[in-house]
Backbone:
């Protein structure tokens, strides 16, 4: 009888959360951290609420990829140590997006982005759009911890190389 053993090592590009004095939750260290949806699920999908938010985020990512979006950035309480996040915030790179293929929900900012939240569980902004209160692009705005003003990290997801997104796109084509 022969037994085989395997040593599976999972390496995540998402670093451990870190404390910022004055922040209610630990956050990602400053910087943009590239990750796949599989890695995000491993780190941030630890309960039913988080898994439901992740499912909505993946649906949105597939819809954006269909329009030609190559990259999204993930922020909000979802990418903190908050046990039960309210939602997530995301921004998407508009370069290469075919406007006619973009789902209209991504352009609907009415009622506090209620349609986006209802459909996907989070909010989406073009990454180059200026956030009204700070005057920063959303990509830069997301990298500031809102309670302290300190730098914090966000997650970058490449939609054109993420295995989960590619599988969903291939399935939708069939």
Residues:
């Amino acid at each position: 009888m022969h037994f085989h053993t395997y040593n599976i090592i999972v390496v995540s590009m998402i670093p451990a959360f870190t404390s910022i004095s004055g922040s209610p939750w630990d956050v990602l260290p400053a910087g943009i951290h590239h990750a796949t949806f599989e890695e995000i699920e491993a780190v941030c999908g630890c309960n039913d609420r988080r898994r439901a938010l992740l499912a909505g985020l993946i649906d949105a990512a597939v819809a954006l990829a269909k329009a030609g979006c190559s990259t999204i950035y993930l922020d909000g309480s979802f990418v903190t140590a908050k046990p039960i996040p309210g939602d997530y915030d995301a921004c998407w790179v508009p370069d290469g997006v075919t406007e006619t293929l973009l789902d209209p929900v991504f352009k609907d900012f009415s009622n506090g982005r209620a349609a986006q939240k209802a459909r996907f569980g989070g909010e989406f902004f073009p990454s180059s759009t200026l956030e009204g209160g700070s005057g920063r692009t959303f990509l830069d705005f997301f990298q500031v911890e809102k309670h302290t003003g300190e730098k914090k990290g966000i997650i970058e997801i490449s939609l054109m190389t993420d295995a989960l997104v590619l599988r969903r796109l291939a399935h939708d084509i069939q």
The beta strands are 31-34, 71-75, 88-92, 122-126, 153-158. The chain has one domain: 36-173.
